[in-house]
Write a structure and sequence with these properties.
Rossmann fold; 6 strands; alpha/beta; 455 residues; six-stranded mixed β-sheet; single chain
């Protein structure tokens, strides 16, 4: 147990979860106070002592299942999964298992469900010892053989929903929950067997688990982008706070004449201390220009999510998107629309193609200057989001120079790794000379570093 727990902590740290030595000591100190054989209690105890950020809980749970997999009970071990006298054909066994799974679901018998799914993994997953194949493949094979769709149909039939259309929502909710449960149990069983074959640390490495803030935005899946959206709002507030602080200086504070004179009366009319009124902290203004071409589509979606979260934090925020020309999309984010609805409006209604449909930063900046330059004032922070790959079009960097002359600050967020900058058609350095900062920004962690250090 000691070695396994230390290995678990090491892998958490490798995943950028900060676990101090004191927290490890706390975890060890808590174990004698609980029933470590109660897996749920054991899990929550480790989570309470080792995890400080709720965003890290998903990674913790996944690694917990790797290092402390659910072992079979005595009843499960006695199952005849390998009994040569009870080895029906694959088709017959699939039918039999489907029936068992449906019965277990209808009777809410988790043990029976787990038994049936473990038999399914034994027969259909085809796990070969030592073979470097990930668990997703084995899970897919198992679910395909038991035919998850047929299981769901049998389950719904057993619930006797009937034909009443008013229960359609209940049907959907029930099938989604059952589907998640079956997938989770199959994944857990496959994981348990892989850990038994290869060891916890080796399996953890193959899973390539990352914290939400370390997910590569450019290649993020839809689910990963949804997870990122949940942590956008606090980051948007932090960005607003940092920008607002830049408006405050001692020069902005005006003399509080009455308070100064009142204090001076206590010293015979001689001002012993000069008082100033605290400057009013006003919300900053932001203009966001985002490339939404195919090469940075996921990053563009991410920046739109950030914009959505920023809307309430800034007094005046205007958003523009472009490919080879630019269009304003502010209205889609300020009308109470959901983030999904706003993104749909942008992708279907924004007029961003005027030439050949390939990224043209120079023309987009020129059109912006022609149509929207009044959006830039000395209070405005301009944030450009894109990879600066200009398809060998004229960069027209002088336009960005004129924008910088009017703006308070100009920042550029580039989703490409720095090692790719200025290669091929990248002109990031040309634009960089007119920016107050150019930042690699392909993860939420890098975006937060920009907010903390750059702004």
């Amino acid at each position: 147990m000691n070695d396994q727990l230390l290995a678990f902590v090491d892998v958490l740290r490798e995943g950028n979860v900060k676990v101090s030595q004191a927290e490890v000591v706390d975890a060890y100190g808590a174990l004698p106070l609980i029933d470590v054989m109660d897996r749920s209690e054991f899990r929550e105890t480790l989570a309470a002592t080792l995890i400080k950020d709720v965003k890290h809980r998903a990674l913790f749970d996944r690694l917990f299942d790797v290092f402390f997999p659910l072992g079979p009970t005595n009843a499960e071990e006695s199952e005849f999964v390998n009994d040569p006298e009870h080895t029906p054909s694959s088709e017959d066994l699939a039918d039999e298992l489907r029936e068992q799974i449906v019965d277990a679901l209808l009777e809410n018998d988790l043990l029976a469900l787990r038994l049936a799914l473990r038999r399914a993994v034994t027969r259909f997953a085809g796990i070969e010892k030592g073979r470097p194949v990930g668990g997703v493949y084995y899970t897919y094979r198992t679910l395909r053989q038991i035919d998850l769709e047929e299981v769901l149909k049998g389950f719904l039939y057993g619930l006797s929903f009937g034909e009443d259309t008013t229960v359609e929502r209940d049907r959907t909710k029930a099938t989604e929950g059952v589907s998640r449960l079956i997938r989770s149990e199959v994944e857990s069983e496959v994981l348990r067997r892989l850990v038994g074959d290869r060891g916890s640390r080796a399996v953890a490495k193959t899973l390539a688990l990352k914290l939400p803030e370390d997910v590569d935005i450019v290649h993020a899946s839809k689910d990963e982008l949804e997870a990122l959206h949940k942590v956008m709002e606090p980051l948007a507030r932090k960005l607003a706070s940092r920008l607002a602080q830049r408006h405050i200086s001692q020069r902005d504070a005006s003399l509080d004449f009455r308070r100064t004179v009142r204090e001076a009366m206590s010293y015979g009319g001689t001002p012993a201390r000069v008082y100033f009124r605290k400057p009013k902290v006003s919300k900053p203004e932001v203009v966001l220009l985002s490339d939404i071409s195919g090469s940075v589509a996921s990053f563009a979606r991410f920046t739109m999510q950030l914009l959505y979260a920023m809307t309430n934090a800034f007094s005046k925020i205007r958003s523009f998107v472009f490919i080879d020309t630019v269009d304003e999309v502010t209205k889609y984010f300020s009308g109470g629309e959901s983030i999904q609805g706003a993104l749909l409006q942008v992708t279907t209604k924004a007029k961003v193609v005027g030439l050949d449909g390939h990224s043209d930063y120079g023309n987009s900046l020129s059109v912006f200057e022609e149509r929207y330059l009044e959006a830039i004032t000395k209070r405005t922070t301009v944030i450009v989001c894109g990879d600066a790959r200009n398809n060998y079009h004229p960069p027209q960097e002088e336009v960005l120079g004129r924008i910088k002359d009017r703006a308070k600050k100009v920042f550029w967020l580039n989703p490409e790794p720095k090692s790719y900058w200025n290669s091929g058609d990248s002109v990031v350095s040309i634009y960089g000379q007119f920016c107050d900062g150019v930042f690699e920004c392909r993860t939420l962690r890098q975006l937060e570093e920009f907010v903390v250090r750059g702004v």
